Amino acid sequence: MMNEPLSTIMIKNITTISPDDKLDVVREIFRSKRLHHLPVVENDKLVGLLTTVDLLWLNRPLETYNEIKVSDVMTTKLATLESTDKIGSAAELFLLNRFHAVPVVENGKLIGLVTSFDILKYGFKKAYPTQDID
């Protein structure tokens, strides 16, 4: 299982945001789509990542979110993987760095996202193929 490529489990239909988006828009995306990680893309290139934890650490009143840009809060030093990297490589990144999501890129362009939940779900489905957890 851990030697299979990330392309096996990565999320390919990704919701992204722009560095110029305001946090009130981001908060609504997190809420309505039940997401926890949003890649930040500019000119088709991955430039950052914003998470629900980033908003918690911001510790600002919700009323000010319409004044704060994504670029002011996003993480720009990112670990990335490629679709041919192994699932085990993502698991190792998660375990060593306490990450929960890693963007998957090809020549700097975002092509996917893999989360710790994706790895858990994949392992569970391998062990219990008849259980429906979707």
What would you say this structure looks like, in words?
With 134 residues, the protein is an alpha+beta fold. The protein is 31% helix and 19% strand. It has four helices and four strands. The chain has helices at residues 23-33, 52-58, 87-97, 116-127, and strands at residues 37-42, 45-51, 101-106, 109-115. It has a two-stranded antiparallel ribbon with strand order 1-2. A two-stranded antiparallel ribbon has the order 3-4. Strand 1 and strand 2 (45-51) form a beta hairpin. The longest helix has 12 residues, at 116-127. It is globular, with a radius of gyration of 16 Å. The two termini are 20 Å apart.
Short characterization:
The protein is an alpha+beta fold. It contains four helices and four strands; from the N terminus they run αββααββα.
How are the SSEs placed, and which strands pair?
Layout: H1 23-33, E1 37-42, E2 45-51, H2 52-58, H3 87-97, E3 101-106, E4 109-115, H4 116-127
Antiparallel strand pairs: 1-2, 3-4
Q: Which word captures the global form?
A: globular
Task: Give the number of DSSP strands.
Answer: 4
Helix-strand pattern, N to C? HEEHHEEH
Which structural category do the helix and sheet elements fall into? alpha+beta
User: What is the mean predicted local confidence, pLDDT?
Assistant: 94
Q: Low-confidence runs (pLDDT<50, min 5 residues)?
A: none
